[in-house]
Amino acid sequence: MPGTEHDGDTMHQSTSGHHLGLRNNHKQLLSAHRIFCAAPPIQRLRPGRPTHSAIDPITLLATAAISAGIAYFATAYIDIEKNTDPTGAAEVADEAQVARGELEADDMAAQIPPGRPGNLTPDQEVKLREMWSATLDVFGVAHETDHTESNGTSTPSSEAAPETKKKSRMSLFGKKKNRLSTASTTSDGDTNDKYGQTKEFQQALASQTPEQLREAFWSMTKHDHPDALLLRFLRARKWDVQAALIMLVSTMQWRSTEMHVDDSIMSQGESHALSETLSSNAAEKKEGADFMAQLRMGKSFLHGTDKDGRACCYVRVKLHRQGEQSERSLERFTVYTIETARMMLRPPVDTATIVFDMTGFSMANMDYTPVKFMIKCFEANYPESLGSVLVYKSPWIFQGVWKIIKGWLDPVVAAKVHFAGDVDELSQWISKAQIPKELGGNEDWTYSYVEPIEGENKAMSDTASRDQVLAERKELVSSYEHEVSSWVAGEGSGEGRSRIAQRLAENYWRADPFLRAKSLYDRTGVIGQGGRLDFYPGAASASSGGHHDEVD
User: Fold this and answer.
1) Cross-strand bridge partners of residue 391
2) I want to staple 103 with a disulfide (CB 3.0 to 4.6 A). Which of 107, 201, 337, 419 is the partner?
3) Long-range Cβ pairs for the range 18-27 (8 Å, 24+)
4) Is residue 185 a contact partner of residue 192, using CB atoms and an 8 Å limit?
5) Of residues 386, 385, 365, the one with CA closest to residue 317
6) Rounded to an integer, what distance in angstroms lies between the CA atom of residue 223 and that of residue 507?
7) Of all helices (H) and strands (E), which one includes residue 300?
8) What is the pLDDT of residue 341?
9) CA-to-CA distance for 370 and 337, rounded, in angstroms?
10) Is 315 helix (H, G, I), strand (E, B) or coil?
């Protein structure tokens, strides 16, 4: 409906005037009603005349008319107060504001999904408190707690004063073998340990010091709210604290000792892979070439958002052929893409959408090994990170493949998989204006890889500046842990956690140039300075949605 700012002002004045008029009429009618009700009857009873009513018909009709008028105006006034936006424009505006990160704090709070910071039930608060208590125990951070059990699930704790920190870690479950066995099984009897995380948990406690585990956790946190990170694991394990702790610690073990996420994949990045392609070492050259090949062809890439504001990862399945890249390079590229997508998450959006473009798919493109690895990543190491999985234009031959893959998936993950046969069906999740033309949408955008620029990571050699920012982060981490410790001990409300979490997020983005190598998305302006996001760089905000998000 066309209109201008002037039209909006006129409409506002008109509506305000209507409200004022209704209020005045309402007062006048109430006053008249009181007068009529209090006044004596117009016609008095006369002796000897038959009586049918104490009120003559004229009074009765007048009173009825006034009462009806009051009811009408009161109803109209209430309806206007309740429905100030009958066109639904406000709802559309809110969706756009969520995507752009422009909602006020109260509006944003209303958008927070359940089980996240700011939207926890009392029982979930208790579970989070228990989770923090157990996590601090693993880190060797001194704190007081009453070790209260909740709903039959106890928080792992040391039963005796430890002689050393290492003994403290190993005694977390030392005398609680029965609890450890139940920690790997959910309440409904389904196993949660199909990836052997209990063993990884025990290996982590045996091989790493509390301080190493602590550093691994805060390295993994990055710009996330620390509570939000723990809550991911709690939700994934149905609020079973011990099972969530096992999952968390095994994930830190996987990141630091198996995949080397932060000290290799993300810190070295694309520029290192490019330099490896020039290596005289055949194995290194192969790894670098395989990694760069996947980037250059756009086997998978991040672009835009879905209707819920989630970052979208597109996987062009026809570009994969078994054996063309090494298993190691496929895994590193997968983790690199997931970690880069994490850089694009801002509250209240904490999940991403994957679109598997099956156009041109044949069995030559089918490779179960990387599929299994991707499933493990999301189920075991990046819990509660998938918003939806969209399988686009899958041919009939994929039906048999899907039956196999579905059998590997956790039911919760499988429920997030949807099939779209054409662009109209795909537009149920992604606006057609933001679906690339390659997939039948209206967005005039094509993936094109921008090569690393020489010297783009020179900040990483500025160790003095890096150490200064990291020293500030260390102090913030200590402050956060102190706030949590007081909260766990019942000595405070823990309200300061959100304030410190905000400062930790801001600090991370100052530290980011020293820790994470530049990516394609930094070079193209999707990820800007200080963590600023622009999912559609270079596009007019009116046509693309102009998704600009600041650090929350």
Assistant:
1) 356, 419
2) 107
3) 18/80, 19/77, 19/80, 19/81, 22/73, 22/76, 22/77, 22/80, 23/77, 25/73, 26/70, 26/73, 26/74, 26/77
4) yes
5) 365
6) 8
7) strand 300-305
8) 98
9) 14
10) strand
The rounded distance, in Å, linking the Cα atoms of 55 and 45 is 9
Strand ranges across the sheet with 300-305: 300-305, 311-316, 352-357, 386-392, 417-420
For residue 107, CA distances in Å to 81, 86, 97, 112 come to 19, 19, 10, 9
Q: Is 215 left (phi over 0), alpha (psi -120 to 50) or beta?
A: alpha
pLDDT for 230-273, tens place per residue? 999 999 999 999 999 999 999 999 999 999 999 999 999 999 99
CB count in 10 Å sphere of residue 131: 24
Distance CA 306, CA 390 (A): 11
Task: Give the 3-state secondary structure percentages of the chain, helix then strand then coil, rounded to 5.
Answer: 55, 10, 35
Among all chains, which residue has been given the structure tokens 């842990």?
Answer: 481
Query: Which of 455, 460, 433 is CA-nearest to residue 444?
Result: 433
User: How far is residue 171's CA from residue 194's CA, in Å, rounded to a whole number?
Assistant: 24
Bridge-based pairing state of the strands 548-549 and 352-357: unpaired
**Out of 197-201, 400-404, 544-548, least confident range:** 544-548
CB 389 within 8 A of CB 426: no
DSSP three-state, residue 309: coil
Helix (H) and strand (E) counts in the chain: 22, 7
**C-alpha–C-alpha distance, residues 367 and 321, integer Å:** 7
pLDDT of residue 67: 47
Query: From its phi and psi, is residue 490 left (phi > 0), alpha (psi between -120 and 50) or beta?
Result: left
**Inter-residue contact 174 to 167 (CB < 8 Å):** no
d(CA 427, CA 308): 12
- CA gap 421, 431 in Å, rounded: 15
Q: Residue for token digits 């989630």?
A: 310
Supply the pTM of this predicted model: 0.76
Tokens describing residue 386:
């998938």
Q: How confident is the model at residue 191 (pLDDT cuts 50, 70, 90)?
A: low
195 touches 410 (CB < 8 A): no
pLDDT digits (tens, 9 = 90+) for 379-417: 999 999 999 999 999 999 999 999 999 999 999 999 999
How far apart CA 174 and CA 156 sit, in angstroms, is 10
Distance CA(183)–CA(237), nearest Å, equals 9
The pair of structure tokens assigned to 138 is 């693993």
Q: Per residue, what are the HEC states of 189-237?
A: CCECCCCCHHHHHHHHHHHCCHHHHHHHHHHHHCCCCHHHHHHHHHHHC
Residue 163 is classified by DSSP as S
C-alpha span between 473 and 343 (Å, rounded): 18
DSSP H helical ranges for 489-539 = 496-515, 520-523
Helix (H, G, I), strand (E, B) or coil at 419: strand
